[in-house]
Amino acid sequence: MANFYSPIGKNLNRVSRKVRFLFFILLSLSLWPDAAAANWSPLIERLVADGFDEPGIRYLFSRSEVGFDPGAMSSKLEALIKTKSKKPGEATAYQSKAVYKGPLKEEMISQARSYLQENRDLLESISSQYCVPKEIIVSILLVETRLGESLGGKGAFNSLASMAMCADLETIRPYLPKNLITSKNEEYARAVCQQKAEWAYSELKALILYAHYSGFDPLSLPGSIYGAIGLCQFMPTNALTYGVDADNDGRIDLFVKTDALYSIANYLKEHGWGCQMDRASQHKAVYAYNRSDIYANTILAVAEKLKAKPKKK
Fold first, then answer.
1. Which of these, 129, 148, 114, 94, lies nearest to 257 by C-alpha position?
2. Would you tell me how many other CB atoms lie within 10 Å of the CB of residue 219?
3. Residues facing 19 on adjacent strands
4. N or C: where does the chain have the smaller number of CB atoms within 10 Å of the terminal CB?
């Protein structure tokens, strides 16, 4: 890495060797608990080798809030193994038309309509700039966080750090169902652990950077089981790349409505959303937000309901 990481929204590869984070000042290393006791040493050493400030990183991992959480890697591995075991085409055939039923319930649609009306001026301003319909933006916010009410029950840092520590299948094996790993899928399971651990490590680095640039304590950020953050549930790398400082306060705060809504539209535009699109193209752009056909189907279905006039009672 080079001397300093690029500004938020720029290419993450433009980085430097000396990333300096001053999490707390005038704290002696002798006051910190031993990070190795929690088995974080390999991860700490890797972060330091990648240019993060060693005292700051060691202090961060020494804090009492940091703990190993096997849930993210174990659930991901179990889901992928079960999907792989399905008959070819079985999952695809289901997902091509399926939707999540919850967001399409009338109560949820009613809440989304009210949100759209309350924030109409802001949403229309975003739509005029990015060509993303306000109904699509609200639909994504509804599905992701119930219009900002549910930001995830995990600490994003712990989820990502824990996944990054699970490159070896043996680390996560004790937390898996007994009969999940077999002689037929063990090689695949090992490959998945390595791949997902590398992914999580990249996201962990981005989370620390995002927190630094935006003035957050990285351990204070709530997230999904896989470390997505904010009202818009961006992964940290996406927060750095596609986040928008829409209120011009000098930081990208995805926990603030204005920044989050602009960031949703910016992400979609950067992934192919245009002013004139057919449904297939819309589906493709939304699919990029969350790589699931069911997800994309649901977003478009909710948006259609929001565009329609509500039924008279």
1. 148
2. 17
3. 52
4. C
Q: Which residue has the tokens 């999490």?
A: 23
Q: What's the start-to-end Cα distance of the chain, in Å? A: 61
- Residue 69 contacts residue 158 (beta carbons within 8 Å): yes
Q: Which long-range contacts (CB under 8 A, 24 or more apart) does 188-192 make?
A: 188/81, 188/84, 189/77, 189/81, 192/76, 192/77, 192/80, 192/81
Where in the chain are the domains?
Answer: 100-151+230-313
Separation of alpha carbons 81 and 189, rounded Å: 7
Domain 100-151+230-313 has CATH 2.50.20.10: no
pTM: 0.85
CB contact at 8 A, 84 and 95: no
How many degrees, rounded to 5, is the angle at CA 182 between CA 179 and CA 183? 160
Extract the tokens encoding 88: 């070819």
| Nearest residue to 143 via CA among 221, 224, 24, 23 | 224
pLDDT at 14: 38
DSSP labels for 74-118?
HHHHHHHHHHHHSPTTHHHHHHTT---SGGGSHHHHHHHHHHHHH
